[in-house]
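Justification of computing resources. Each target in the renewal requires a structure prediction run like the one illustrated here; the chain below, 277 residues long, is used simply to show the kind of job we budget for.
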Amino acid sequence: MAQDLDGVREHYAAAGLLDRLRAALSTLGPEDRPMSPAQLGAIDQFHTRGHAATADLSELARVGPDDRVLDLGCGIGGPARLLAEARGCRVTGVDLSPEFVEAARYLSVRTGQQDAVEFLCASALALPLADASFDVVLLQHVAMNIEDRPRLYREIRRLLAPGGRFATYDVVRGQGEPLYPAPWARDARDSFLLDPQATREAVEAAGLRVAAWRDDTPHAQEWAAQLKAAAAAAPSKPAAPGLGVVMGADFPLLAGNHARNLLEGRVGVLMAVFEAA
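Resulting structure tokens:
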């Protein structure tokens, strides 16, 4: 039976998101003032280590200006905009949430990148895209919401041109059960973590081979510890616009549980690149 994605859609539902983004960004300048992808880093990166992780992953995947890049599970477009600016490539972003896609298009106009990035709303398990149409597919903190990993990785393999690269940065199972609610799921019903070895086996079964493999957990734990220390040092300081604008008022709880999951070893983080034959 195919996975019912309604729970995932509900978790990432963001009614009124565009209005919240406009209000939050008004603190940084007027609507007609151009913004850079770096200025949006605190608000548009939905994964551990934010901009730094996307930069590391794109370097590991050798993303170049001539590559056709797909950012699968693009959120509100932060990684796509960062890649387009830093690597000079054209990026297509796909997300399950129509609110996120709308916001991604709006923010790309704010950064003047509407001609370098495009976004569409679709499921990662059934993409309306042609075979072999991308040189690089990025997947950052998405697979943990997907129960049918074989189907996900087969779909990614279908989209890759010969010699293409699949670059993944994913939360993986550690020791014990994760604490919920977490940034990717309110409870275990929409959380489908695999350990690193099971992830590798599932990707390889789709016809891809490992080109680079990195346990990013130590870097993720250092990042989590820094965030925890910063929050403890200034608990009453007014917060700058951040992911709470997108994910809701309880995002500090979700982020706090993610930090605990990392620091207690309940989850890890894997960064890897696979190549298509």
